[in-house]
Amino acid sequence: xxxxxxxxxxxxxxxxxxxxxxxxxxxxxxxxxxxxxxxxxxxxxxxxxxxxxxxxxxxxxxxxxxxxxxxxxxxxxxxxxxxxxxxxxxxxxxxxxxxxxxxxxxxxxxxxxxxxxxxxxxxxxxxxxxxxxxxxxxxxxxxxxxxxxxxxxxxxxxxxxxxxxxxxxxxxxxxxxxxxxxxxxxxxxxxxxxxxxxxxxxxxxxxxxxxxxxxxxxxxxxxxxxxxxxxxxxxxxxxxxxxxxxxxxxxxxxxxxxxxxxxxxxxxxxxxxxxxxxxxxxxxxxxxxxxxxxxxxxxxxxxxxxxxxxxxxxxxxxxxxxxxxxxxxxxxxxxxxxxxxxxxxxxxxxxxxxxxxxxxxxxxxxxxxxxxxxxxxxxxxxxxxxxxxxxxxxxxxxxxxxxxxxxxxxxxxxxxxxxxxxx
Length: 423
Fold this sequence. Notes:
Distance between the termini: 98 Å
Largest sheet: 10 strands, antiparallel
CATH topology of the largest domain: Glucose Permease (Domain IIA)
Number of helices: 8
Radius of gyration: 34 Å
Strand content: 25-35%
Low-confidence stretches: 1-22, 27-35, 413-423
Order of helices and strands: HEHHEEEEEHHEEEEEEEEEEEEEEEEHHH
CATH superfamily of the largest domain: Glucose Permease (Domain IIA)
CATH class of the largest domain: Mainly Beta
């Protein structure tokens, strides 16, 4: 009987030893402890007709705290100058104090109000800060066709937006009439700066170089900084300035000609044959009207059948007239100096007009002439000084090559099987 008892005893000892070597089971966890946050963050858009005072009051801050925020902001920003639909971010403590407020002034700057000392939460500081942006240089190529008959539509087809299209149109505003010169098959390509903020589009910088083939004629623009003056300007491929005495049009973009210069035209209001000594451009009410050249305002006021009119005297014995305006730009009055491309008024239908449009007239040496014909006869701009020409040509070639390289690199690669299928 001793042997069975000994075996059982040894088996028990062996089991106990194994139990000591086995890892202990993990302790059971109780429920997580929830630590409440001591702040609340609100992100929203500024409502219509809001002020900083009203916006903060709407978030139930005390009158004293709102006044402290307004006083702090006033040193760097007009508290009444909030714009509807701009984003803002607000951080408040649970006991009702303002920790932080940020408001997007524009794509480049934002207002920040903070409480720098937690022991004095009613003491606030404000500053206007720049957004941190990343700027890259890129290129696109576009084409005018039946599906994209305008520069705006063709630009949007490249993935870029209206702003870049307007910049490109203004760049060639002395060479191309974007209302009448564009034809299906016209092409453009450009090298430009593009900014992003936190991965989102934040605006365009300078156009560095561009080529536009319009109605069979090639136009080029190269941005080049003069080392002698430090100023940048645009030149054609031969180094001649793109700045002309006249702009192609007194409207910012793609105006539509509804009536041309004529010695005999049926007047749309009086239904009699009369001379039409200008060009009528159809445009929406309120569209910006710009001076086609630098000069001095002769008059800005009511001109009978011409409605609200601005008249400008330029060099070379030239005067320009802008009729049927709905309003005048600030500072536009007799004796005021204006720059080329400066806004002088807004499109309207004042005077003898059937609808909103601009009647633009040009007089040379006392005689009214056809503005379209005068524009086409403009001489080329002033050339780069011969001493700077080699540096310009080097910059020109580098940027044109960069356009080609960037466009080719971003073009979709055709699959070999697709290429064979098209053969």
